Amino acid sequence: MRDSYREQLDDVLADLVHMAQVVSSAVRSATTALLEADIHLAEQVISEDERIDAKQAEIEGRAFSLLARQAPVAGELRTIVATLRMVTELERMGDLAAHIAKIARLRYPETAVPETLRPNFVRMGDVAEKMVITAGQTLNDRNIQSAQELRARDVEMDELRRTQFRLMLSDDWEYGVEAAVDVALLGRYYERIADHAASMGRRIIYVVTGQLPEDQI
Q1: Which of 5-19, 114-128, 148-162 has the lowest mean pLDDT?
Q2: Is the dihedral of CA 205, 210, 213, 216 positive or negative?
C-alpha cells in the first residue's frame, strides 16, 4: 500500500515538473508575441492558460486525495503541502503570461514596448523564463543550490523593473501616457513571475531540509 502511495506522490511531482515546463514555454511565447507583435502566438498563449488552469485543478485534486486517504507525516507531508502551494504558483505564472499576451494582442499590429525599453524587456523575458525552468528542474532533482540561485535572479528582475521606472519618469520619456501604462503593467507581470518562481525555490528548500529560508514570507 505504501509503495503504491509513494508512486502516486512521485507521479504528482512529475506532473508538477511538466507543468513548470509548460509554463516556461508560455512565458517564452508571450515575450516573443510582445516583442514581435505576433498576434497568433499571443492567442496561443491565452488559450494555453485554460489548459494550465485545468492541470492545476487536476494536480491539486490528486494531492488533496493523498492527504486525505494516506495521512502522510514528516517529509511526505511537507512534500504534499508544498505541492499544493507550488501548483498555485505555477497557475498564477500562467495567468501572468496570458496577461502579457493580452497586451500584445491589444496593441497589435503595433508593439506595446517602446524601442528604448526593448533590451530591458528582452532581458526580463529571458530571466523570467529561465527562473521558471530552474524552479522545475530544482523540483525534479532537489538541488538546494539551484533553489538558492533563484533569489539572485529575482534581485536582477527587481533591478530591471527599477530601470523601467527611471526611464519612464525621466524628462526624456517621449512615448506618452498609454505606453507608460503598458510598460508599468508589463514590468509588474514579469516581476510577479519571478517572485512566484523564487517562492517555489524557497518551498523546495523546505521540502528537502524541513526548514523555511529566513526570507520566507
Answers
A1: 5-19
A2: positive
CA distance 92 to 155: 20
Which range of residues forms the domain containing residue 194?
2-209
Which residue reads 500500500 in cell numbers?
A: 1
Distances in whole angstroms, Cα of residue 190 to Cα of each of 6, 11, 39: 36, 30, 19
CA distance 104 to 110: 8
For 216, residues 6+ apart whose C-beta sits below 8 A from its C-beta are 202, 206
Any domain includes 89: yes
Domain presence at residue 217: no
Q: How many CB atoms lie within 10 A of CB 6?
A: 12
* All cell numbers assigned to 124: 526580463
Show Cβ contacts of residue 136 under 8 Å, excluding neighbours closer than 6 positions.
16, 17, 19, 20, 21, 24
Question: Which CATH number is 191's domain given?
Answer: 1.20.58.220
Alpha helices in the chain (DSSP H): 2-36, 39-70, 74-107, 118-141, 144-168, 176-209
Which of the 8 DSSP states describes residue 115? G
**Digit-coded pLDDT (tens) for 148-205:** 889 899 999 999 999 999 999 999 999 999 999 999 999 999 999 999 999 999 998 8
Residue at 49: amino acid letter: D
